[in-house]
C-alpha cells in the first residue's frame, strides 16, 4: 500500500532537512505545505509556505489542517531541546491523533548513546546516558507507544550527522566547506581517524518521502539511507581533491566555540562529544533491503554540497 499521489503533506520545520523534504515531496508530485514560525524564505517550486507555531495542540492543528501525512522535522536551539522538544511532541502527537494524519518523524542516533565502536543498526540497544540522549529516547518511546496503542500512525527515520546543501550547523558544514573553498582553516572535532557516518540531507529527504509513501513501514524506527562510514580524515581528503588543494585541517579535542558554533551551543553539545572520540558507524542495510533505496556515495554528496556553498558564498559576497 502506498500513500496516494497528490495527498497533502505538511512538513513541520523549515531548516535544511525540512526544506529538503518539502522539495523532494513536491518533486514526487505531492501537494506540500512547509511550516515554520515565520512562513517566509526562499521560494520553493511546488511548496506552500505557512507561518505556524506547533508548540501547542491548537497551533499544530492549524498547521496540519487538511494534511494526510505530517513530517516532523522541527528542531530547536541545542540548549533548549530538553525542555522544548517534549512539548512539541505532545502538541504534534495530539494534533495527528485528532486528525488521523500519519506522522513521519526525523530522528537522531542519540538514543543509542555511547557504542564504543559497535555498528549501529535498528536493533542496537538504547543506552543513552546524556540528558539529550535520554530525552530523545523518551520521545521515541512515546511515539512508538502512540502507534502501538492506536492513537496515531507513526514511523521514525534516523539520520547520522547531516551533510549537504543548506547544511550549515553540522560538523561537516559551515566550519568546513567555506574554508575548503577559500583556503582557510577547516575545523574538525576529535579523532578524525575514526570511522564516522555522515548522512546526505538529500538522502534524508528521499528516505522520509519513501516512508511517507509506504505505510507498511509504520510502527518502528528506520535508519535512513547513509553511505558506508569512512574516517573523517578520508572524507576531508576527498574534499581536498575536489577543491584542488589539500585542506588546512585543525582538530579540536574538546568542545569549545568555533565557526558557526558559539559558546552556548558548544557548552550544550559537550555531553555528545563522545561522538568524536569513538567510531560512529550507522548501518542502513534494512532500509535498502525493504525499500530498494541506495545511499548517495559520499563523493557525490561532497560535490553537491560544494556546488551549493559556492552559490551561497557568492550571494553573501554580493550583500
From TrEMBL:
<dbReference type="InterPro" id="IPR036291">
    <property type="entry name" value="NAD(P)-bd_dom_sf"/>
</dbReference>
<feature type="domain" description="NAD-dependent epimerase/dehydratase">
    <location>
        <begin position="13"/>
        <end position="217"/>
    </location>
</feature>
<dbReference type="InterPro" id="IPR051783">
    <property type="entry name" value="NAD(P)-dependent_oxidoreduct"/>
</dbReference>
<dbReference type="InterPro" id="IPR001509">
    <property type="entry name" value="Epimerase_deHydtase"/>
</dbReference>
<protein>
    <submittedName>
        <fullName>NAD-dependent epimerase/dehydratase family protein</fullName>
    </submittedName>
</protein>
<dbReference type="Pfam" id="PF01370">
    <property type="entry name" value="Epimerase"/>
</dbReference>
